[in-house]
């Protein structure tokens, strides 16, 4: 029986006020976030640093019932699987470009009790996923270069989303980077059902309305 895809909106907290991370995160959940997207950067794979598993673990102690996904923009994704599982992460996304053995990392994530997400940089061909898509729960198509928030959306990446949806109709497909009310229809029409939105949601004067707008667009295309 085919899996029924649903629209899910996961705000990225990268652009939030990290000095009040719990308050910012709790507000996003109250305003309709389906999950929280936590960007973990090591200053090596990408030229920026954010936070690690100790911060995630502290946040999980206060926010217990919402899905946490960590977007691991790190050089050694296998190194942080156990610490993130211990911190209470539900879905662990890593970049195929950073792994020597993608299949082994996927298996290790699953064994640690987390869902598996694989991410593709803008310059990575989409068909590389054919080798391990059966080991993943979702594929993340980056619509900006990883490492910084607030970048301009790359519409060219929608060809990857379309290809994935055509070839894997039941797959959860996520997009991340420059996604907001002005670009959501492009993503939804291409076939993305999981939406990461940082700046557009965090800086919105009405987060609840913005999240609702994003979700309505995705739902519309999923049901057509």
TrEMBL record:
<feature type="binding site">
    <location>
        <position position="176"/>
    </location>
    <ligand>
        <name>a divalent metal cation</name>
    </ligand>
</feature>
<keyword id="KW-0413">Isomerase</keyword>
<keyword id="KW-0170">Cobalt</keyword>
<comment type="similarity">
    <text>Belongs to the ribulose-phosphate 3-epimerase family.</text>
</comment>
<comment type="pathway">
    <text>Carbohydrate degradation; pentose phosphate pathway; D-xylulose 5-phosphate from D-ribulose 5-phosphate (non-oxidative stage): step 1/1.</text>
</comment>
<dbReference type="InterPro" id="IPR011060">
    <property type="entry name" value="RibuloseP-bd_barrel"/>
</dbReference>
<feature type="binding site">
    <location>
        <position position="71"/>
    </location>
    <ligand>
        <name>substrate</name>
    </ligand>
</feature>
<feature type="binding site">
    <location>
        <position position="37"/>
    </location>
    <ligand>
        <name>a divalent metal cation</name>
    </ligand>
</feature>
<feature type="active site" description="Proton donor">
    <location>
        <position position="176"/>
    </location>
</feature>
<keyword id="KW-0464">Manganese</keyword>
<feature type="binding site">
    <location>
        <position position="178"/>
    </location>
    <ligand>
        <name>substrate</name>
    </ligand>
</feature>
<feature type="binding site">
    <location>
        <position position="39"/>
    </location>
    <ligand>
        <name>a divalent metal cation</name>
    </ligand>
</feature>
<feature type="binding site">
    <location>
        <position position="12"/>
    </location>
    <ligand>
        <name>substrate</name>
    </ligand>
</feature>
<dbReference type="InterPro" id="IPR013785">
    <property type="entry name" value="Aldolase_TIM"/>
</dbReference>
<dbReference type="GO" id="GO:0006098">
    <property type="term" value="P:pentose-phosphate shunt"/>
</dbReference>
<keyword id="KW-0862">Zinc</keyword>
<keyword id="KW-0479">Metal-binding</keyword>
<feature type="binding site">
    <location>
        <position position="71"/>
    </location>
    <ligand>
        <name>a divalent metal cation</name>
    </ligand>
</feature>
<dbReference type="GO" id="GO:0005975">
    <property type="term" value="P:carbohydrate metabolic process"/>
</dbReference>
<feature type="active site" description="Proton acceptor">
    <location>
        <position position="39"/>
    </location>
</feature>
<protein>
    <recommendedName>
        <fullName>Ribulose-phosphate 3-epimerase</fullName>
        <ecNumber>5.1.3.1</ecNumber>
    </recommendedName>
</protein>
<dbReference type="InterPro" id="IPR026019">
    <property type="entry name" value="Ribul_P_3_epim"/>
</dbReference>
<feature type="binding site">
    <location>
        <begin position="147"/>
        <end position="150"/>
    </location>
    <ligand>
        <name>substrate</name>
    </ligand>
</feature>
<dbReference type="GO" id="GO:0004750">
    <property type="term" value="F:D-ribulose-phosphate 3-epimerase activity"/>
</dbReference>
<dbReference type="Pfam" id="PF00834">
    <property type="entry name" value="Ribul_P_3_epim"/>
</dbReference>
<dbReference type="InterPro" id="IPR000056">
    <property type="entry name" value="Ribul_P_3_epim-like"/>
</dbReference>
<feature type="binding site">
    <location>
        <begin position="198"/>
        <end position="199"/>
    </location>
    <ligand>
        <name>substrate</name>
    </ligand>
</feature>
<dbReference type="GO" id="GO:0046872">
    <property type="term" value="F:metal ion binding"/>
</dbReference>
<keyword id="KW-0119">Carbohydrate metabolism</keyword>
């Amino acid at each position: 029986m085919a899996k029924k895809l649903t629209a899910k909106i996961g705000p990225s907290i990268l652009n939030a006020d990290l000095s009040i991370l719990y308050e910012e995160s709790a507000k996003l959940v109250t305003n309709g976030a389906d999950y929280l997207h936590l960007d973990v950067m090591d200053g090596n794979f990408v030229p920026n640093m954010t936070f690690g598993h100790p911060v995630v673990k502290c946040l999980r102690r206060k926010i217990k019932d919402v899905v946490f996904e960590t977007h691991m923009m790190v050089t050694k994704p296998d190194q942080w699987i156990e610490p993130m599982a211990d911190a209470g992460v539900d879905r662990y996304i890593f970049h195929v470009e950073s792994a020597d053995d993608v299949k082994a990392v996927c298996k290790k994530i699953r064994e640690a009790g987390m869902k598996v997400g694989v991410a593709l940089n803008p310059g990575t061909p989409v068909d590389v996923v054919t080798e391990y898509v059966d080991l993943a729960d979702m594929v993340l198509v980056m619509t900006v270069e990883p490492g910084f928030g607030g970048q301009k959306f790359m519409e060219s990446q929608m060809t990857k989303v379309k290809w994935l949806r055509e070839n894997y109709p039941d797959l959860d497909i996520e997009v991340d980077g420059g996604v907001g009310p002005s670009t959501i229809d492009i993503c939804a029409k291409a076939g993305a059902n999981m939406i990461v939105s940082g700046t557009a949601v965090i800086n919105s004067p009405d987060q609840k309305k913005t999240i609702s707008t994003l979700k309505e667009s995705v739902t519309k295309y999923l049901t057509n």
